[in-house]
Predict the 3D structure of the following.
Amino acid sequence: MKKVLVPVLLSTLLAACSSTGTFDQPAGGAAVDERSQGAGSGVATVTAPSASGSGIAALTDPKNILSKRSVMFDFDSYVIRDEARPLVEAHAKFLVQNPTMKMLIQGNADERGSREYNLALGQKRADAVRKALTLLGAKETQIESVSLGEEKPRCAEATEDCFAQNRRGDMLYSGEF
Amino acid sequence: MRKLLSAYRLLIAAALTVVSAVAHAQLSIEITGAGASRFPVAIPVFENEGTLPRGVTDVVRADLERSGLFSLVDMGLAAFPVTAAPDMASVRGRGADAVLTGSIYQQGDGRFEVRFRLFDTQKQTELGGLSLRMAPAQNRAIGHKIADFVYEKLTGQPGYFSTRIAYVVKSGPTAAPRYELQIADADGMNAAAALASREPIISPAWAPDGQRLAYVSFEAKKPVVYVHTLATGQRQVVANFKGSNSAPAWAPDGQRLAVVLTKDGQSQLYVLNADGSGVRRLATSPGIDTEPAWSPDGEWIYFTSDRGGSPQIYRTSSSGGSAQRVSFEGSYNVTPRPSADGTSLAFITRNSGRFQVAIMDLATRQTTILTDSARDESPSFAPNGRMILYATDSGGRGVLAAVSSDGRVKQRLSVQAADVREPSWGPQSR
């Protein structure tokens, strides 16, 4: 049988529930944790900070459908497949029952073609998941849909099978992003 | 005393294996195609060049050779002092149609003066000369300036050897990759990381001042647009709205950016000030609009849109209004990038399943495919419009390549054991 849902690998999760996830931030300074002078060319090296990693234990229990976070898409398609419905419904229910919980949906695209155009295609997949969740009762303010384009492939080979694994939307909860 | 290698051999060594003295992985440049007829020029060593810790004329030779427009005529170890008229008949006899004479003068303050003159040996006339002062460590920068001078005198177009390029290097294991936004001289030397991150960096775009870069970083687990001042490392978030923020493009005035935001739905074009303020929507379309690029006169914004069913290139007035379709051949034309003189457009076209660099003459709309590779991305013109830098694939690894706007001159720039992508050629230095 075709494997359609692959759980997202989450970094070591702490029991604490953090309150990250302020969504609508316009301009502001970014934290920078290291600066050093580059190789004598008038260019200073900045190291970007890593993201935090903490979440809720219930969301990572492999026996719980909520631990599954990926919605796969067909080639050139932005429609959620029927087999992904139970997963989307489970997450919608969780969001309804936990109105303070926030979700980041990261859309992805396969690597063929322009990076920025693929970013826009990944956005369409993330938006499709977001719309399905809100139709099922989750609040718009709980969910942010973004795109990683072709930048974070789950599978790095240039094969049809690999491309299929990279056409997906991943759902992350507060503290996981 | 200089080693008894001929100047020409030094040149070949310099051009084919650019070796790094710095710890950073360096871009090495390989010439894979040259112009049909190359202008023969002699660049003998300068008088007293041995008093410099590192040479200048080998930098000039490497620049000119790499451009694909010149062939270098070996003059052995004989210097041609700037104070004496060269024996033009003898230089011509060796096959050179131009010769550069020059001398180095040590100054009292530890600096040097470089004086040089360029002669046309066919017309037996002087084409001009310059006197430049330099610190001993500035040999490469001075070499690039001299190469720019020779290039401009002999081709009529400004040189690009003093410019810089930006690109992204991905290295390390697949599970824990490292991304670096690197800045290097146009010859791949002097590379330095402006930003290092565990998350992807894409779409670097040089501000017209050559001092700042806008780019998209995923360090916040989503695409956010930053403006980064290279000298200080100061970074400012200029677009971090709900959803994705991407594809920054500088207006020619350096005061505004076009960006792509999804805050109001799918990917659409917006314009904002370089400090992130004053965001306004530029266009409203039923599909994806992305990859904006301003025409050099600031009048137009070229972009990619799939409003007609397949991704094609359109343009709209930078003050808004309706869009005109620009590309018509084929079902996938993306990443429009106008040349600095506004006469042509570089872009990526899908041709029988292969993604290739193409150029369009904007007056006639005639399109020419310039490459024969299969995975080309992110074309970027040199400031003089003569070369196009782009990303491609070589043996499964990302490399940069450059092709001349006539398709004849080809170069490949790669970093050992790393993926290089997302090149952007900086503006002419001022």
